[in-house]
Design a protein that fits this description.
The protein is an alpha+beta fold and 146 residues long. 22% of the residues lie in helices and 22% in strands. It is flat.
Length: 146
Amino acid sequence: MSPYKIDVLQGNVVTREQVQILRPGLSKAQVRNVLGSPLVTSVFHGDRWDYVFTFKRQGQEAQQRRLTVFFKGDVLERHEADDLPSEAEFVSSLDARRGSKEVPFLEATDAQLKAFQSKNPVPAAVTLPAAPATNYPPLETPGAAR
């Protein structure tokens, strides 16, 4: 058995529906409203934004997708993208590790309950020491304007 590894999600999730909104002539602000801030921008390529997404989960092949948008000045000229999933496809891929939708049977027999109680006796009532009486001044003076 291998140790547990956390799911690693990096970058921007861009779906097919978002890319379908992109049209040549959109401003950089409009593209940012649709796709969010790009993961990669370059000082040397100011007219190119890269949206990169990777998702790594233990026991599954890593997902990686890329979308690049190209601008001419402040206006979208074109875009290039991998085959992107729809929003529904992406959400269902996140739930892929759950093989069975069956709810496990969670009822104990009387014998199991008695065995548990004998191994885990209920402690006698514990009395906690009384908290010391402290008298703090009020945080605000009564009637003060807010």
